[in-house]
Every structure is written in structure tokens, then in C-alpha cells.
Design goal:
elongated, five-stranded antiparallel beta sheet, alpha+beta, six-stranded mixed beta sheet, 35% strand, 350 residues
Length: 350
């Protein structure tokens, strides 16, 4: 059993099942992200860990202690919300020390902890300021410091960066990860942003319709998705309709053109399936030993670090991502091209 263990957790609201048979073991100091679309149950699961919702079935254990039915103030869990939820009439020092004051700790200890937390979030000397005197990113860092000041066993973050602009989000997520590693605190992070989850997490829990689709490292989730939902939800994905030609050798055909997958396929000869390929696995031109499909350039989109090329294969389109460089020769619209990809880069799915 992990430091935080959720076993057979479910939550029902009336006739609606929000979370179904959720199981997860989290190690001490691990950073876990719940990733999925709106309504998939990730925030409801977070709120059950926090104690704001009680599970319909299942147990929640932290450090060997069953906290399933305990009220929030008896769980020693820190929570950071999407809205900063700072007290506008309090200074930053009073905001950060609020939980410690409620716990009736000595003033000297509160002052020392507040100073430590402001230093951790790189806002030393800001204790006398008020929330309206800070930027959005600074306010969210103060909200994080307030959650950490009580020395929680588990830190919970519910889409804490969604109200910030793109540049600040990137900067602040790096700060969150730095602080989490510095303090070694077990953290659960809820997001619908794939990039946030992939860049921050030790492991990701992909959720859909109240259920866990897959749990794994960012590398595993992205490169080896176990379900069609995970494959389609994480990153860009091409789906080619294929016919199984030889299941034993992993051979398919696409509009009469042979395609090798490099491994056996669990399907009957002649079965209609889809071939999944990431855009960055594809290239243009002939490449010895790779699969080749003939098509025509339909569009070229410049995205900075990459150039996304849309190739018309007839009744299907492929997105091909080329790494940008100053000497890159951009393909031209309506140009005839051959798309190449190695057998190991694709997999067969429903």
C-alpha cells in the first residue's frame, strides 16, 4: 500500500455516477496528475481526498490512517484552488499564516513559518503587502504557500494555473515542481492541460467518464497508450483505416498499400481496424526499411518549433510534424509526396 491509497472509490450523485471503481497507490513524495476532459471525475476525486465530498464506496488511507469519513480539518491536507481564494483584507503574511493561527500555534512559530514559506515561493519581504498589490501569478504562489504552511501530508491542487496567461503558467508550473521537490511533499494535481501533466508529473492518471483509462509515467502514457481514449486524448494522433492482411507478422493494407507494424496483431485476417501514428513519427520522402504512403500536400502550417504538414491520401489525411530549422525547405501545397514511418512507430487499435 502506498503513502496515499485510494481503494475501490466511487461517487454517485442521485442517478449519476461521477467516479467509478477508482484505485490508486501514491508513494511518499510522488507528484501525480489527474488528467482528463471536463466532467471525467478528476475534481470529484480530489474533493474526496480533501474531505469536501464523501465517497459512496471505498476507502482513502494516508500514511496508514483511514481518513475516508474524517472532516477536512482533521485530514492534514493542503488545498490550492483555481481561484486564489486569498483574504483581500489580510496581508500576505496573515494569509499565509491563517491556518497556523487557527491551529493556535505560538506567534513566534507562525512568524518563522510564514517567513520560510515566503522565501520558498521567492517573495521574501512581501509579507506586509495585500493581495491586490500582486500579480495573478504572485497571488497563486501565496495561495500555495498558505497550503504548505500547515505542513500537510498531502498537497492537492485543483487546476491552479487555468486563470493565468500562457507565459505565467509555464513559469509558475516550474515553480510548483521546484517547491514540491524541495519539500518532498506528496502531491495530487488536477488538470485538463496535457502539457502541464506531461511536464510536471511523476505519473499521470488519465480519466474518462468517471473511470481510470490508464496510469503511467508521462513517457508511457504518451508513447504506449493502452486505450483508444488515451491515445486520442494525449497529443496529436493520426488514425488510418486499415485492413489486417497477416496478423502473425503484423501486416496491414491501406488502400492497397502494404503497411508493416512490426509485431503480431490480435485480429482476424480481413478485419477492419485503425492504425495509430503520432505526427512526429512521420517523415517526407523515401527511407529504407520504413513504410511508405503516397499522397499530396494539402496544407502547410508554421508553428514555430515545428511545421505541421497536412497530407491528402485520398479519403484520409495525415498530419506530419517536421522540426523547424533555418535551412528547412518547406513543402509546397499540391506537391506530390511520399510519407514514411518505421514499423515500430504505429500500432493497431479499434
Amino acid at each position: 500500500m502506498g503513502f496515499l491509497a485510494l481503494t475501490n472509490i466511487s461517487k454517485v450523485f442521485g442517478n449519476s455516477v461521477a467516479v467509478r471503481d477508482f484505485n490508486l497507490d501514491v508513494e511518499r513524495g510522488e507528484f501525480i496528475s489527474f488528467l482528463g476532459p471536463s466532467g471525467c471525475g478528476k475534481t470529484t476525486t480530489l474533493r474526496m481526498i480533501a474531505g469536501f465530498e464523501l465517497p459512496t464506496t471505498g476507502t482513502i488511507v494516508v500514511n496508514g490512517q483511514d481518513i475516508t469519513m474524517k472532516p477536512p480539518n482533521q485530514r492534514n491536507v493542503g488545498m490550492v484552488f483555481q481561484s486564489y481564494a486569498l483574504f483581500p483584507n489580510m496581508t500576505l503574511a496573515d494569509n499565509v499564516g491563517f491556518g497556523l493561527k487557527i491551529a493556535r500555534l505560538p506567534k513566534a512559530e507562525i512568524d518563522r513559518t510564514v517567513a520560510e514559506m515566503l522565501d520558498v515561493i521567492h517573495l521574501p519581504g512581501f509579507g506586509g503587502r495585500y493581495p491586490h498589490q500582486l500579480s495573478g501569478g504572485q497571488q497563486q504562489r501565496v495561495a500555495l504557500a498558505r497550503a504548505l504552511a500547515i505542513h500537510p501530508q498531502v498537497l492537492l491542487l485543483d487546476e491552479p494555473l487555468s486563470a493565468l496567461d500562457a507565459k505565467i503558467r509555464v513559469e509558475l508550473r516550474s515553480e510548483i515542481r521546484r517547491i514540491q521537490r524541495q519539500l518532498g511533499i506528496t502531491t495530487i494535481y488536477v488538470t485538463h492541460d496535457q502539457e502541464e501533466a506531461l511536464s510536471l508529473s511523476d505519473r499521470i492518471v488519465v480519466m474518462s467518464a468517471g473511470q481510470v483509462e490508464q496510469i503511467g509515467t508521462p513517457f508511457e502514457i504518451y508513447n504506449y497508450p493502452r486505450t483508444a481514449f488515451t491515445a486520442a486524448f494525449i497529443g496529436q494522433l493520426n488514425m488510418l483505416p486499415v485492413t489486417i492482411a497477416d496478423p502473425q507478422t503484423g501486416m496491414c493494407t491501406f488502400e492497397g498499400q502494404p503497411v508493416a507494424t512490426g509485431e503480431p496483431i490480435e485480429a482476424a485476417t480481413g478485419a477492419a481496424k485503425y492504425l495509430a501514428i503520432r505526427p512526429e513519427e512521420l517523415g517526407l520522402g523515401h527511407s529504407p526499411g520504413d513504410n511508405h504512403l503516397d499522397g499530396r500536400i494539402e496544407a502547410v502550417t508554421f508553428l514555430g518549433a515545428i511545421v505541421r504538414v497536412r497530407v491528402d491520401l485520398g479519403d484520409t489525411f495525415l498530419s506530419v510534424d517536421l522540426f523547424n530549422e533555418r535551412l528547412l525547405t518547406l513543402p509546397q501545397v499540391n506537391q506530390a509526396v511520399t510519407v514514411n514511418f518505421p514499423p515500430h512507430a504505429c500500432w493497431v487499435t479499434e
